[in-house]
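Hey,
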Amino acid sequence: MLRLGAGATAGLALGPLAGCAGPTGAPGPGTISLGLNRSLVSLDNKLNQFDAAVTVQRAVRQALTRIGRGLTTELVLADRFEMTEPTRWTVRLRDGVRYSDGTPVTVKDVATALKMYAGVNGSFLIGLFPELPTVEKVDERTFHLRTEHPVPILDQLMANILISPAAKNRPEELTGGVGSGPYVVTSANSGTGEYSLAVNPEYWGRRPAIEKVRVRFVPEESSRVVAVRSGELDVIDTITPDSAEQLRGLPGVRLERTSGTRVNQLFFNFRKPRGHPLADPRVREALSYAIDGEALVRDVLTGSAQQAEGVVPLALRGAVRTGSYVYDPGKARKKLAALGAGDLKVRIIWESGEFPADTSVMEAVLEMLRAVGVRASLQQFQPGGDILQWRQGRRGDWDVLGNGYSVPTGHASTSLQGMYGGTPEKEKTRDTYQGYVFPEIAARLADASAESDEKTRDKKLAAVQKAIWDTRPCLWAFIPNVVLARRTRVKDVRLLQVNSYDLAAVRLEG
């Protein structure tokens, strides 16, 4: 059914599709060429925070900390980051850290960065914070991060706040500008997603081994696969199982794999008015019985993912199993009919490249829903299009969103706060996750996230995760493995579970 489904839906009138594009010209000696599956709209991350972008963004701008191997916190611009009181962290900037224009990184820059991130409407990153800290300067290098309530993973959260000079920072994504990273931008085209980077001569750390970086947006996976086979691209990210199988064992190409911490979801629209069928958790649960997740993992994702067994990936610290997705189409039909939703219409939207094999997954889901009498339709958006407006409820109506949610801290409380900590106040500015607003759950998450004792915190988080599962937020969800392909001339790509790597540590041979 899955294979037939793709053919049967090939003539559907989907939304705008990304055109076929590919790189031209192989990278020269000393230059690495990266092919991204999503358009890199900017080298800032206030809104543009998809996994592979992090590799490039952190090569230009840096944070106080970063998430490294084993999802541990590593110091970057800071050489000290320590909780000295339950609501106070003491931080010291590393001696001698400078921007590419030669000016020093200052305490004021950190304070301004927090204000600029807070000023972004609909920011994914700010939703991760239970509250934003304030900065209290101690001396030229030392400051306190103060919060009203304890934020015991603040060192992990601050890994996502990239620091820029205060005078040049703005409450929006910065397309160019000055950073403290190992590379500087030499050319940028946010429209095409093409960037050129060169070594930052003022870099405060160890000089990168690669002199130049070329970043290309190549939406068609087949074009990226051909380009890495031919040597026109050196690294391609987030490839599908089919592409990985094509590249396996080829001369000159190697695959890098690791377990992932990203959850991919078919998330319900929680902005439906009272009385709408999808506002009823029993209807949402009934629809989930129509999805054969085992078949999707086996036949579409070819074993490169696992069905979700919780509301966040189980690899995260503090995550627990909350339930499993059960395939029972007969039960789906029966429950939908009993709830008066036997003739339900469902519109599924997603952005191309949101996760590997996205179109194949969606077409198979479409057929599964139709098999239980649901009148389902698909609408696909181009990368860089206006899907954000749809997600925020500012444009067209939809019922299910195909979406991936990264966890850039390695801790369950971060993703729980970002996805399920919505409040009526946040919904006024559309800063909730698809309208998910359950005040009691938000309060329990805030309480758990502020707990300093790790054992007590994990116990509270486990209980609230089970409460979230009972609201049935997803039609289906899965956790993909992280896979990229590289030319063998590219060495020391240490792929992390958060689907990024340190570009400054990569080197070329040949």
